[in-house]
Each structure stands twice: as structure tokens, then as C-alpha cells.
């Protein structure tokens, strides 16, 4: 059985999955996103999915043709992605998906740890009984989905859905902490997006059989100190796994147009022609 979540313009404020399966997309009547916003989401999702690999050169014209829009919205989207830190540009060289280095991973993980450990502490203090039960169910579901990745390693749509649901679990913790400013900070700093990018970059697709169930149990049943410790260990474990696997990327060179990250021959790379 396959599960899939559609990543929409505001992926973090949809209703979380309930007891059975994944949540269905919520139908809304919000205005259609601008062409630049649509291009931003499409390109970002292709990066997170691995359709555009880490280190791949990005062509504005190629992307515009693929998305069936003009070049200016694509340029605006790439500028926003560069501000976000997902792509990088150099004069007379071009634009590419940024290759994370150990400093990137450590810095982003430190910010994530600071924000999410506080969310974990507040969840332990403020979450209702129903929310604690919900989180435990979500934790078990995430573990089941990651286990299914072993049989669907080449299905990037399925992996995308799993990562989307994984992010929903962490955002749900922040929502139940009842501190809107903290939840907004987690979203604004994009710590979960970068965690997703790092996992995609190093092809980290499987975790321990009860990795998220144990986290959910600690937050739902433990003290604030236990919740803090569980989240801290959870984040550092993932960071260390990513750091161990980063060595397979070659050091960036000025002529990055011809650089091919490991595994690039198995994936589609955006054209390097500007």
C-alpha cells in the first residue's frame, strides 16, 4: 500500500495525520500562488525529492521551459532559494544546488536543537492528553513509513511523502507547545527543510525501528528534562549520521558546472546551459 502527501504552499499548517494512514490534502479556497511562488515551490520540491541533485547546475531557461513559465519568475524563485541557503551563485559561473559541508550541517543542527528542545520542554508541560496520544500514534507511523522505505528506496515520490509526514510530526510538537512565536521561528529558520535536504543529500532513508516512537514516548510521558534530553539526542544522532556520510562529496571547485556529485549518474541533473 502506498501513501502520499502533497506538499502545498503552506505545508506546515495542514491538519496532522490521525490514527489511520496519512492526512489527505485539505481543500482550501486560498488564492493561487504567483508564478514566482509556484516556481519556488516546484524547484525546492525537486531539490528535496532528489530530482535535482545536490551540486547540480541550474539553468533559468531550462527550468522556465520545464515549468512552462517565463524566465523572470524563475529568476525570482532562484533568488529566494539563494536567500534561503538552498542554492548558491557565482558571477560568470552560474547557479547550483548548494552542497552542504560539515559546518553547514553543524550550524543548522545547533539552531534546530535550540528551537526544538524548547518545543519539546513546552510540549511536556502543556500538551493535552489527546495531543500526547496523537503524537505517540504519529511517532509509530513515521517509523512504519521509514521501514517501508527499505522496499521503496528508488521511489522518490514515496520518499517525498515520508519526509513530508516526518516534518509534520516535528511541527506538531511545536504547535502543541502553545508558543506561536516558537513554532514560527522553527518554520522561518527552515531547520526542518535543511534537515530534509541533508538527509536527501546523503541518502539517509532508514532509521531505527522505534526511533520516533521513543521520542514521542519521552515527550508524552516524561518530565521536561527528559523531553529536552530525548529531543537533543534525537537531533544529534541524525546530525552525526549525516556528517559521517558527507565525505563522499568532492570539494567544490570554481568550475562547478561539470562537477557531478556521487550518484548523479542515477539521477536527473538540471542543464548547465544558461
Structural class: mainly alpha
Low-confidence stretches: 1-28, 257-274
Q: State Rg.
A: 19 Å
Q: What percentage of residues falls in helices of 4 or more residues?
A: 55-70%
> N- to C-terminal separation?
41 Å
Query: What is the third-level CATH name, the topology of the largest domain?
Result: Four Helix Bundle (Hemerythrin (Met), subunit A)
Helical stretch tally: 10
Largest sheet: 3 strands, antiparallel
For the secondary structure, the number of strands is 3
How would you characterize the overall build of this protein?
- By secondary structure, this protein is mainly alpha-helical.
- It has ten helices and three strands, in the order H-E-H-H-E-E-H-H-H-H-H-H-H.
- Strands 1-3-2 form a three-stranded antiparallel beta sheet.
- Helix 2 packs across helix 3, helix 4 packs antiparallel against helix 7 (180-188) and helix 5 packs antiparallel against helix 6.
- The protein is globular.
Give a concise summary.
The protein is 57% helix and 4% strand. The chain is mainly alpha-helical and 274 residues long.
Output the keywords.
3 strands, three-stranded antiparallel beta sheet, 274 residues, Arc Repressor Mutant, subunit A, Four Helix Bundle (Hemerythrin (Met), subunit A), 10 helices, mainly alpha, disordered C terminus, 2 domains
Question: How is the topology of this model organized?
Answer:
Layout (H helix, E strand, L loop, with lengths): L34 H15 L7 E2 L1 H8 L3 H14 L2 E4 L3 E4 L4 H25 L2 H20 L7 H21 L3 H9 L2 H11 L9 H11 L2 H22 L29
Antiparallel strand pairs: 1-3, 2-3
Helix pairs in contact: 1-3, 2-3, 4-6, 4-7, 4-8, 4-10, 5-6, 5-9, 9-10
